[in-house]
């Protein structure tokens, strides 16, 4: 009697067991808001994290290295430009005599950073698309386990 109950339970459970070879949550999502945001499992990714994630795909990793270089240059120009614009503005707000030439140079540096930012976004998008495409190539294989009876006893069959 115990054997029949155990076999019945195994048959019932065999239809409920599924294993996936790849998780959909591994893909990286691109969201276009005020800027471009890269998300994985709902968590915002930095360029450094994108580099680490794309190491699994050499082509995407190379594209991300170019993107990261552009990002670094953009941050340097943008930070320097923001500082050079902010200093005279702060001086003017405090009531001092601002050096507006610095603000002009800073504005120029900010403008120089814009193409680097655009290039970063272009290459990062390409890297993410290559990475996501490689995930879909490996596929989301549906593996089913079937438990059944044979002449020799109970068998487990894996179908994929």
Write the layout of secondary structure elements.
Blueprint: H1 2-14, E1 18-20, E2 29-32, E3 36-40, E4 43-44, H2 47-54, H3 58-94, H4 100-138, E5 142-150, E6 153-159
Antiparallel strand pairs: 1-5, 2-3, 3-4, 5-6
Helix pairs in contact: 2-3, 3-4
The string of secondary-structure elements, in order, is HEEEEHHHEE
The backbone outline, from C-alpha atoms, is elongated
Number of strands: 6
Helix content: 55-70%
Low-confidence stretches: 15-24
- Rg from C-alpha positions? 28 Å
Report the total helices.
Answer: 4
Quote the average pLDDT.
82
Largest sheet: 3 strands, antiparallel
Distance between the termini: 33 Å
User: Into which percentage range does the β-strand content fall?
Assistant: 15-25%
Strand order of the largest sheet: 1-5-6
Global structural class: alpha+beta
């Amino acid at each position: 009697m115990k054997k029949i109950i155990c076999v019945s339970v195994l048959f019932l459970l065999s239809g409920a067991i599924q294993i996936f070879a790849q998780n959909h949550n591994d893909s990286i999502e691109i969201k276009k808001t005020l800027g471009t945001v890269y998300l994985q499992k709902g968590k915002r990714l930095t360029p450094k994290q994108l580099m680490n994630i794309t190491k699994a795909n050499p082509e995407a990793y190379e594209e991300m290295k170019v993107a990261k270089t552009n990002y670094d240059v953009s941050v340097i120009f943008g930070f320097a430009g923001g500082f050079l614009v902010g200093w005279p503005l702060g001086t003017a707000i405090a009531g001092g005599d601002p050096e507006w030439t610095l603000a002009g140079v800073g504005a120029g540096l900010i403008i120089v950073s814009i193409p680097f930012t655009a290039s970063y976004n272009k290459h990062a998008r390409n890297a993410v698309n290559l990475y996501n495409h490689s995930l879909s190539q490996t596929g989301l294989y549906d593996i089913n386990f079937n438990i059944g009876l044979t002449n020799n006893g109970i068998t487990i069959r894996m179908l994929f």
